[in-house]
Amino acid sequence: MNTVEDRLAALEAQVAALSERLAAAPPPPPAPEGTFWALDGLKQRLPTDGSGAVLYTGTVRVAGQHYDWQYGRTVDDLLAADWTELPSTLSALAHPVRLRLLREILGGRQSTSELAEIEELGTTGQLHHHLRQITAAGWLRSAGRGRYAVPAERVVPLLAILTAAGR
């Protein structure tokens, strides 16, 4: 039976281990000066007579990979663009299994055999169907021999869409 002293010693060891981990962790990045530092920078680059712009940017580290991405367009360009191609790209994300596949692949499970081990993803046929759908929409690419990867230029946009959808 554990005595109070044994339990206290175990708690002290856990606190010491946590303190060591915190001391070894890199310091957090400095807080931006203003709440809207990215927006302020965008505004400085825009002509005053325009209708504005949209910018998304990110620095991401997932499964040992690092991605930096920034993309922006003016509102005039966005509204003048042909939106007829967008539904297929967006609808590829509109299924829980496909979103789970993207999350698993970003997390490092990149082979069909690794993905097939996840029961919630359905049968092998269903798995391949979903992989084809999100590959055709450009959210995945074949990395050879039954392996898949989210293209580097799609990682931050995907996470930006998920951020906007969760808001």
Notes on the structure:
The chain is of the alpha+beta class and 167 residues long. The protein has one domain: Winged helix-like DNA-binding domain superfamily/Winged helix DNA-binding domain (Arc Repressor Mutant, subunit A). Helix content is 51%, strand content 16%. The protein is built from 8 helices and 4 strands. It has helices at residues 4-24, 37-45, 75-80, 86-91, 96-106, 112-116, 124-136, 152-166, and strands at 53-62, 65-74, 141-144, 147-149. The chain has a two-stranded antiparallel ribbon. A hairpin with a 2-residue loop joins strand 3 and strand 4 (147-149). The longest helix is centred in the first third of the chain and has 21 residues, at 4-24. GO terms for molecular function: isomerase activity.
Major sheet size, sense and barrel closure: 2 strands, antiparallel
What fraction strand? 15-25%
Shape: flat
Low-confidence stretches: none
- The CATH architecture is Orthogonal Bundle
Question: Which radius of gyration do the C-alpha atoms yield?
Answer: 22 Å
Order of helices and strands: HHEEHHHHHEEH
Oligomer: single chain
Report a brief summary of the structure.
This protein is α+β, with helices and mostly antiparallel strands and 167 residues long. It has helices at 4-24, 37-45, 75-80, 86-91, 96-106, 112-116, 124-136, 152-166; strands spanning 53-62, 65-74, 141-144, 147-149. The protein is 51% helix and 16% strand.
